[in-house]
Amino acid sequence: MDDSIAKPSQAHVETAEDAERGAIASSRARGTVQLLDEDSNTIILIPTPSPDPKDPLNLPDWHKYAIIIIVAVYGAMSVMCTSALGAVFPVVQELYPPEQATHATDLLTHPTLFMGIGNLVAMPLSVAIGRRPVFLATLAVLLASGIWCANATSLTSHIAGRDIYSLAPMMIQEIHFLHQRGRRLSWFVGIENTIVAAMFVATTYIVPNLGLAWWYGIITIINGLTLIATYFFVVETKFDRPKDAQEGEVHLKLDEDGNLDSEGKVRSVFRVTTARHHVLDPEKYGPKTWRDSLTIFHFKPDWSALWTFYKETGQGLILPTIFWLVLRNGAFLGA
Fold first, then answer.
1. Structure-derived torsion over alpha carbons of residues 102, 106, 108, 113, reported in degrees to the nearest 10
2. Is 301 part of a structural domain of the chain?
3. Contacts of 60 (CB under 8 A, 6+ apart)
4. Could you tell me if 44 and 249 are in contact, meaning their C-beta atoms sit under 8 angstroms apart?
5. In Å, how far from its chain's centre is CA 313?
6. Which of 233, 257, 278 corresponds to the end of one domain?
7. Which Gene3D superfamilies does the entry link to (predicted)?
8. Which segment of 12-26, 163-177, 212-226, 269-283 scores lowest on mean pLDDT?
9. Most buried in the list 2, 36, 146, 314, measured by CB within 10 Å?
């Protein structure tokens, strides 16, 4: 954080009353936050945005909606790639010799398995190196495997292509404040489901009339356009913040002149609400430019995050209910 946020209009010096409130806040159950500011009766912005113009929370609304639409199209096409063939599977079976008909079901079951494997690869990588490079890479894989499937000349090649097709992060919550996420995620789900429904219906006409190659071709064209839009509009949404920013207030130490000082004795709480906005400081952090937006790698890789991800995933799998659900899900998909 910088000096620009330590202004009287944006932060306040801690008093006895503030200390009492802090004690009450610290007694709250872990994982809970205070969403309403009692003084102004307005909503507290969580996480606390920074004065850096490159903070994804500071993106304009049109840019945030553009990201929602792009990610929704990506999600819809991923669902189409893995699930839509079930609607026209009898037509697909007729494309292969009778002796291969039993193996044709692998076109439906393998992608679901590899979608899970893809999550185990993409999610920890997005934590370690950032969301943008992983998202671009998964779209590139989606595009390449779509071309593979469209040109597959054998069932084995087709199955292999669809397995890679499903190796395909969630970024919407990182560009919105806590009180906005429910509404914006609803937009995402609504757009995605509308596209999926329309494409499922279209599949029943495209495959019988134009053929399976054209079905893959149409989806691949959409994925290609999505990849181009992603490169220009989907910025890196990972951003380093103080841990207390996730609680809606950043605790600062100031010197007697009101400047940030790690050894300062004056404490201040920086809190941003819907009525008390923060001021961007491009002079210190630099203005946000297209070059910043188009940069693919923004962080030094944190490979220790991979171990943390797999360790916590393994700890979750130890829970009997989770383990039982995984077994049941696998049994139903494999049946």
1. 150
2. no
3. none
4. yes
5. 18
6. 233
7. MFS general substrate transporter like domains (1.20.1250.20)
8. 12-26
9. 146
**CA distance to 111, 209, 211, per residue, from 47 (Å):** 36, 51, 49
Same domain, 48 and 60: no
**Distance between CA atoms of residues 93 and 97, nearest Å:** 8
Q: Are residues 183 and 326 in the same domain?
A: no
pLDDT of residue 19: 44
Decide if pLDDT at 152 tops 70: yes
Domain residues for 180? Answer: 56-233
Q: Give percent of the chain with pLDDT exceeding 90.
A: 28
Clarify whether residues 46 and 160 are in a common domain. Answer: no
Q: What does the alpha-carbon distance between residue 306 and residue 316 come to, in Å, rounded to a whole number?
A: 15
> With contact defined as beta carbons under 8 Å apart, do 252 and 268 qualify?
yes
**183 and 273 both lie in a single domain:** no
Return the amino acid letter for 74. Answer: Y
Q: Where are the alpha helices (DSSP H) in the chain?
A: 16-26, 61-83, 89-93, 106-129, 131-150, 155-165, 178-210, 212-233, 282-285, 290-294, 304-318, 320-334
Query: Which candidate, 146, 145, 147, 123, places its Cα nearest to that of 135?
Result: 123
CA count, 13 A, side-chain hemisphere, 123? 13
Q: Which two tokens stand for residue 274?
A: 């819907």
In angstroms, the CA 125 to CA 110 distance is 23
- The C-alpha atoms of residue 44 and residue 283 are separated, in whole angstroms, by 26
pLDDT digits (tens, 9 = 90+) for 90-128: 888 888 887 777 788 888 878 877 888 888 888 889 889
Name the phi and psi angles at 271, rounded to 5.
Answer: -135, 135
Q: Examine the domain organization and report whether 104 and 141 are in the same domain.
A: yes
Provide the pairing of β-strand 266-270 with 11-13: antiparallel
Q: Tell me how many domains the chain contains.
A: 3
pTM score over 0.85? no
**Sign of the four-CA dihedral 170, 124, 115, 221:** positive
Is residue 302 in some structural domain?
no
Report the DSSP pairing between strands 266-270 and 250-254: antiparallel
